[in-house]
Amino acid sequence: MKVNLNPEYLPVFHHIAKNAGTYVLSWMMMFCRKYNISCGSTKIKGWGAWRIRRALIKLPDGKQLTSCYYTPTDINRHNGNFSMHSLQDQSSDDVDLETFIECIHSKDISPFSISIDPMDPGWKSARKAIEEIRDASNRKYLLQFTVLRDPYKRAQSLFSYLTSESSFHEPTHQCFKSKTFEDYIQSTEVEDSWFLRSLLDMEEKSIIEPHHLTLAHDVYLKDFRIEDISNVDNLINNVFHGVYGIMQSDVEPHVVKSNIDKNKTPNKKKIPLKNLPKEIQQKFLDRTYWDRKLWERYCK
């Protein structure tokens, strides 16, 4: 393995809920560790695994980025603006954007990758913050990527997850008013296209039209790396080998076994879309039309 010691790109993952986001983040952390070890960080006095960390960066509008980073000076231990996220997650710190930028300039932090967390639609503030992080890190470019998924399979997974105890830690746990999956996929609780709205900073009351799909491609998606969830490993390898010269096969098997992470959807009986009444199928297909168009364009 020959790593790139002077990367020009900063990887940016656009995290869509129930589209392998937790899995991608776990690989980001493992890659961050392996890359920094390969660059000689273990030779620095006081090296320890705690120096590979996640920053949960709070943005002024209440949204959040997650950045995997390396701290040669253990900045999270002596800067009071860093606070451990929780006792259950001792590798993550809550920090404001201004402090994070200052610590990049002071060489207390070396960002490895960024994830835009799935919150309310609209990524304007995230884009601005990422550009500031890129500039402070002396990277020339952003390498943006995301995972898409068949809208019906995603809806099944999202409903099952958020109505189960597996999501108790999520702010959206038990948020659905619909009591059954059939009620849910006929309701306005199903996202018409959270991803398009986030890309184009569209309000929820705005109607998505054909030109929005063209606009999203011309302005953003033509430069993205995009794969279906079934090809997520290929996507991860292409992005991180391209930027840093590192692949999944470079990470030690015992590290993968201990650190791989997935949000598990409860094993509930899943009804194929074709088995539902025609009127329910049509309501769902109408509601998720633009997400299906996105998935078909970039993943089929």
Structural overview:
This protein is of the alpha/beta class. The protein has one domain (9-299): Rossmann fold, CATH 3.40.50. The protein is built from twelve helices and eight strands. It has helices at 21-38, 75-78, 97-105, 124-136, 151-162, 181-185, 194-200, 210-219, 232-244, 253-259, 278-287, 289-299, and strands at 9-14, 52-58, 64-70, 83-86, 89-96, 110-116, 141-148, 225-228. An eight-stranded mixed sheet has the order 4-5-2-3-6-1-7-8, sandwiched between helices. A hairpin with a 2-residue loop joins strand 4 (83-86) and strand 5 (89-96). Helix 1 (21-38) packs parallel to helix 9 (232-244) and helix 3 (97-105) runs parallel beside helix 4. The two termini are 32 Å apart. The mean pLDDT is 92.
Layout of SSEs?
Blueprint: E1 9-14, H1 21-38, E2 52-58, E3 64-70, H2 75-78, E4 83-86, E5 89-96, H3 97-105, E6 110-116, H4 124-136, E7 141-148, H5 151-162, H6 181-185, H7 194-200, H8 210-219, E8 225-228, H9 232-244, H10 253-259, H11 278-287, H12 289-299
Parallel strand pairs: 1-6, 1-7, 2-5, 7-8
Antiparallel strand pairs: 2-3, 3-6, 4-5
Helix pairs in contact: 1-9, 3-4
Structural class: alpha/beta
- Report the top-level CATH class: Alpha Beta
**Model regions low in confidence, pLDDT < 50 over at least 5 residues:** none
- Return the domain count: 1
The CATH level-2 architecture is identified as 3-Layer(aba) Sandwich
Calculate Rg over CA atoms: 20 Å
Order of SSEs: EHEEHEEHEHEHHHHEHHHH
> What is the topology, as strand order, of the major beta sheet?
4-5-2-3-6-1-7-8
- Give the distance, in angstroms, between the N- and C-terminal Cα atoms: 32 Å
How much strand content do the residues show? 15-25%
| Mean pLDDT across all amino acids | 92
Helicity, as a percent range:
25-40%
- From the spread of the alpha carbons, the general shape counts as globular
CATH topology: Rossmann fold
Work out the helix count: 12
Biggest β-sheet strands, sense, barrel: 8 strands, mixed
- What is the number of E strands? 8
